[in-house]
Amino acid sequence: MARLVQYEEAPPEVRAVYDEIKAARNIPDVNNFWKALAVHPPTLCRTRDSLREVMGPGVLDPLTKEMLSLAVSTANGCAYCMASHTAAARAKGMTEEMRGELLAIVAMAAETNRLADAYDVSIDPAYRDPG
Amino acid sequence: MARLVQYEEAPPEVRAVYDEIKAARNIPDVNNFWKALAVHPPTLCRTRDSLREVMGPGVLDPLTKEMLSLAVSTANGCAYCMASHTAAARAKGMTEEMRGELLAIVAMAAETNRLADAYDVSIDPAYRDPG
Amino acid sequence: MARLVQYEEAPPEVRAVYDEIKAARNIPDVNNFWKALAVHPPTLCRTRDSLREVMGPGVLDPLTKEMLSLAVSTANGCAYCMASHTAAARAKGMTEEMRGELLAIVAMAAETNRLADAYDVSIDPAYRDPG
Amino acid sequence: MARLVQYEEAPPEVRAVYDEIKAARNIPDVNNFWKALAVHPPTLCRTRDSLREVMGPGVLDPLTKEMLSLAVSTANGCAYCMASHTAAARAKGMTEEMRGELLAIVAMAAETNRLADAYDVSIDPAYRDPG
Amino acid sequence: MARLVQYEEAPPEVRAVYDEIKAARNIPDVNNFWKALAVHPPTLCRTRDSLREVMGPGVLDPLTKEMLSLAVSTANGCAYCMASHTAAARAKGMTEEMRGELLAIVAMAAETNRLADAYDVSIDPAYRDPG
Amino acid sequence: MARLVQYEEAPPEVRAVYDEIKAARNIPDVNNFWKALAVHPPTLCRTRDSLREVMGPGVLDPLTKEMLSLAVSTANGCAYCMASHTAAARAKGMTEEMRGELLAIVAMAAETNRLADAYDVSIDPAYRDPG
Hints:
The structure is a homohexamer.
Chain A: H1 12-25, H2 32-37, H3 41-55, H4 62-75, H5 79-91, H6 96-118
Pfam families (chains A, B, C, D, E, F): CMD (PF02627)
Protein name (chains A, B, C, D, E, F): Carboxymuconolactone decarboxylase family protein
GO molecular function, one term (chains A, B, C, D, E, F): peroxiredoxin activity
């Protein structure tokens, strides 16, 4: 189990990140992911910056972004990430029926990915990037 | 490279699947994925049935379903599937900007998935499934 | 593409391994896998020893061993290994129908593996190792 | 941990699947995998249908099919699936010696898969699918 | 194959990144990885920033950092990344003998990782993070 | 959880391996990995031999070898292996700052690996192996 850096013991640069996350999400404490990354402050700061940019406003809506994160975390088999992205997606409107369909897609893609690789299917000319 | 079963050489059960896919998508020929699966007709039929159910009408819209498939195929590193799902998602409205955000999410999730696993982050009580 | 160490340019220790493989399998030349490993002779020798032990006579018959290797190589997405183990399994008796069933199992397992992980299924008491 | 849908609380379509599985396998209750999938009945039904077809009678014998499933689940790192397929394979006749050889093959294939990829070995002409 | 954004057609923000990379590494042109990322400028900029921080001066020396990147890229099966990190590591001093040992470690770890997972080995108390 | 073969119940060939490991590392008992492999003595012996060769004296120093093993085990998501290689690397001199940089590299490589695959970046001519 990860060592978690609590606010009280955190150095100022880590406290600043915690304060910022708490303010942005209006939550009383940051989740364990951030407390674990804080053992290496450069990773904490860089990951916070990257996620803020990637998951922030863009052409994809917040729920779609969260569901994509959940799908990828499931494909990668990360238990913590599946739990946290499921919670975040539910908070943004994912119903149980939507979750059911999402996980069915992740699982079916795993199956068709293996079949396409196994049969060494050559890419149809129409699918090639015009590049 | 896969052996591809062309319509002319296909047995009746395979032709029936090809005919159905061509009619449903209004295309002149099925793509290589189906021609490769046709070397084992039970796999062709079962995969067609499963995909029709999973990718068909539901609570998630068709573009979101296609983007989820693309995200998972990217996470799984299947070159054929990335190409075919990119084409299908574009046909359903995915712009280059949307693709850029989608791939950024897939890549960032790969990074945070590894960090969560590496630091062995324990799941926050609030994230646990009420089960 | 890998640098391949041909017999003529190989040092004596590599030639000895090549000679042994050719004699054991009664083939005129070793395949590319061995010629690629020969750039690091300790890896060539160790891999040859390990494979000889693992794939050699045991309680599982040679065809089953080859099909297991093919299934794992497919799950791991190794194109070279899929090609070489398919050829080897065919040489030991795998028919196209058997290959079709094998690949269907690999693909279905990929799907059910994702579902079991995604739904975080707890292991049934009856399945726990008596340890 | 997954929410498990018990028989008593299950809707009729789910009960029908449970009843059928119990009858087919002559067991008093279905295992946790099915109870977890039941949160999304379409996935429960589709997975049951697919597994019945893929794992049912064919040219490969039941034990070989189960061992292939175990090998793939091990390659994919699915803890639940390793436990359930180990139990199922033992019930079909897998001895501890057979399990030892199977896992040695899975592990060796993981090693040789990485070596073939790392050295970018080109596929021998003799291994190419006649296509 | 990726669409590559050449300097001549690149927007100012992309040219600025290209100029900076060329100056920092004293090379006449950026490699294909950067030209491919340039189709989505935010990803280009963020990736450049993150890599500069992660691969820049720290407590690990540059060659060790490059070899770690090569090892991970091999474990993840990324052909482009294996090629580019092999070249970069050689430029920083990796000999063929060092490469041979590195790849042997990657492959052996793949094997022992599978064995540890397959046998579900419980973590020794002495290995638990003091947390 | 794995069945662990304790010294008292072990057959002579297993005891000999345990004795040898204990003597080589000057430790009172072998760790759980070895006790788990002992259920299949040929795997125990072969893995011990292979690790002794791969992790033994060579052109890479022991700490670098251990850190490479930790990086690969993290990329492969093996919890036991991450714990044991972290402990072993610390024993050989890995500081917390070094661990932080190592894990940042593993995570960034996961991200850039996905981007290179997703954008299907063609290998720069300069990176091609002279073969």
